[in-house]
């Protein structure tokens, strides 16, 4: 049985550990400065806590770096001498593959990934950058199979990561903004907050499920199926068009993309 180790067991690192553990074919280990985080994962997914970063790197076949970007260099340099024969995976936003390889002194192949926050409930999307020329076919297959099993995974070149980040990485923020707006509308209409929140969340889930169950039907057709001629729904969608909501959403994603490019440079 292979061992998957995470240095950093917070929200995202912990979610990936839990997803890997559910596969039943991996042993999961990890280190985090928070004993509570390690204890929670031990109870939920059988995590074997490690004393420090070096112990994690020594025991793991795949080492996930799940710390904040400003801590990546220190962590990777600390474990570099123990990475021979391993596979290094980093999810730190804005830390390029070249930098990961430099920090690790080229000790092993490296992969850069970008999951989004719904990964914390097993519904995430994850970009996989397999550009490292030292990755062999077996390692690429392992990474793809592993992350495809716990998320909707796509393989992208590193140059495409800013686009993924803008649309999918930041996307949950836009969806939650929409949810907030719908809940506030519910409050204006007289619904209690908890009722509005529950109904709006189900509205979002049900609408997405309907789209998924009809993959050949354009979203525009699904929208028009709700809008009777002369009815209230078409009046509401006309108001969205008058306010250029569609354009505002597109502009928000493009502004996010511009900022992602600035951060990457």
TrEMBL record:
Residues the entry annotates as binding NADP(+): 7-12, 66-69
Protein function: Catalyzes the reduction of 1-pyrroline-5-carboxylate (PCA) to L-proline.
Keywords: Amino-acid biosynthesis, Cytoplasm, NADP, Oxidoreductase, Proline biosynthesis
Subcellular location(s) of the protein: Cytoplasm
Native organism taxonomy: Bacteria, Pseudomonadati, Thermodesulfobacteriota, Desulfovibrionia, Desulfovibrionales
Domain Pyrroline-5-carboxylate reductase catalytic N-terminal: 5-94
Pyrroline-5-carboxylate reductase dimerisation domain location: 158-263
EC number: 1.5.1.2
Family assignment from sequence similarity: Belongs to the pyrroline-5-carboxylate reductase family.
Pathway(s) it belongs to: Amino-acid biosynthesis; L-proline biosynthesis; L-proline from L-glutamate 5-semialdehyde: step 1/1
A GO biological process held by the record: L-proline biosynthetic process
Domain of life: Bacteria
Gene Ontology CC: one annotated term: cytoplasm
NCBIfam families for the chain: proC (TIGR00112)
Name of the protein this chain belongs to: Pyrroline-5-carboxylate reductase
Gene Ontology MF terms in the entry: pyrroline-5-carboxylate reductase activity
Gene transcribed to yield this protein: proC
Catalytic activity: L-proline + NADP(+) = (S)-1-pyrroline-5-carboxylate + NADPH + 2 H(+); L-proline + NAD(+) = (S)-1-pyrroline-5-carboxylate + NADH + 2 H(+)
InterPro entries (alphabetical): 6-PGluconate_DH-like_C_sf (IPR008927), NAD(P)-bd_dom_sf (IPR036291), P5C_Rdtase_cat_N (IPR028939), P5CR_dimer (IPR029036), Pyrroline-COOH_reductase (IPR000304)
Pfam families on file: F420_oxidored (PF03807), P5CR_dimer (PF14748)
């Amino acid at each position: 049985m292979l061992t998957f180790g995470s240095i950093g067991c917070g929200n995202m690192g912990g979610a990936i550990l839990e997803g890997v553990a559910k596969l039943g074919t991996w042993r999961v280990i990890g280190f985090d400065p928070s004993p509570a985080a390690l204890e929670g994962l031990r109870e939920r997914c059988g995590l074997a806590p490690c004393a420090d970063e070096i112990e994690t790197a020594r025991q793991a076949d795949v080492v996930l770096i799940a710390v904040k970007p400003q801590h990546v260099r220190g962590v990777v340099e600390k474990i570099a001498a123990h990475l021979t024969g391993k596979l290094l995976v980093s999810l730190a936003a804005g830390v390029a593959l070249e930098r990961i390889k430099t920090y690790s002194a080229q000790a092993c192949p490296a992969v850069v990934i970008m999951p989004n926050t719904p990964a914390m409930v097993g519904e995430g999307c994850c970009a996989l950058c397999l550009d490292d020329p030292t990755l062999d076919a077996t390692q690429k297959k392992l990474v793809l199979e592993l992350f495809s099993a716990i998320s909707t995974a796509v393989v992208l070149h590193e140059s495409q990561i800013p686009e993924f980040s803008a649309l999918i990485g930041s996307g949950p923020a836009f969806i939650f903004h929409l949810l907030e707006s719908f809940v506030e509308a519910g409050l204006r209409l007289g619904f209690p907050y908890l009722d509005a929140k529950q109904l709006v969340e189900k509205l979002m889930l049900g609408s997405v499920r309907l789209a998924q169950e009809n993959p050949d039907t354009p979203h525009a057709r699904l929208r028009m199926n709700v809008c009777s001629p002369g009815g209230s729904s078409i009046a509401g969608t006309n108001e969205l068009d008058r306010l250029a909501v569609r354009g505002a959403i597109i502009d928000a994603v493009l502004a996010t993309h511009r900022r992602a490019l600035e951060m990457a440079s």
